[in-house]
Amino acid sequence: IFISFFFKKPKPKKKVTVARGASGARFRRPGELAAEDEDEEIILDGYENESDENDDDEDDTAVEEVAEAAAEEEDDDDGQGVHNERVCRTLKDKAIIMMEAKGVFIDHDEEKMALQIFPRMAGLARRVHDNTTLKERFVSLVKKNDDLQGTQRTLTRRVPTRWNSDFNCLNSHFHFRDVVEALTSTSSLGLRAYHLSDDQWLMAEDVCEVLLLFDTVTRVFSMKEVPLIVDVVPTLEDLREGLIAARDDTINDVSNIVKIACQASILLVDKYSTFADNCDIYLIAIAMCPDRKLKWFKDHGRTPRQIKEIEKLIIEKWTEVYSPDEDEE
Prior knowledge:
Region (Disordered): 27-84
Oligomer: single chain
Main location: nucleus
Keywords: Metal-binding, Nucleus, Zinc, Zinc-finger
Number of domains: 1
Number of strands: 2
Helix content: 55-70%
Strand order of the largest sheet: 1-2
InterPro entries: RNaseH-like_sf, ZnF_BED_domain_contain
GO molecular function: zinc ion binding
């Protein structure tokens, strides 16, 4: 959902039904919102308030290319992409309203600038990979740049179906920033549509910092070894706390759209946390973990009453499973 703030989405072409989410969790943190508006909703073709203000801009070639590619992928996903997009839009709208109440707004210029970042980076990576002339020019510039460190020698392509692909694509652009700017500023190469302004590079830095949070989480859950149940809720908690820190950052000049995207992501984490809290085994696993126990819940914002209820739950479950039968007695 975070990354959806930086891509122009195509209008959906399918009708799907979004099922109601789970009921409220028993052990939600004070102030945490439940996902409660995902009632049965029929998704019709297109969105009522879809804006086409950017469609006629000359420099939005890359944006349109990525939107069209997303539409083609959506045609083959049996409605899953439309479902995900609707959930994202619902939480995005909530996040925007919540942040507006705090005086944080997205103006048209900032939104337009944000929507161009990833399409331009992804488009340039694709052009460099697919065009022999551009590839040779890129390699030549890399060889001439003595400041480049490491073994990477090409831009990372964005693959929408691959975890952390957006982060890797963005990160590689920062690695080759001097080369990228040299390519996109050379008029004879026809890559002006993929040029990023200084403000866009600054915004991209903010985005990269947040995506690093997701990169850490997805690396944990994509390992060959299945993550222990005891790590699920704490991992979501760490992600949530990192997103809150990014949203409320007062030291760095974080762009408003990044802050609002963080808020939308927090709402989605809360949604998944609700599902986890409704499954006793996650709570029991944390409480029984030697280095966590009930103290973990106290350290992460649960009230004394909630902790007492968790303790009661554990005792009841232990008694149910391990107490001797009357016949044995």
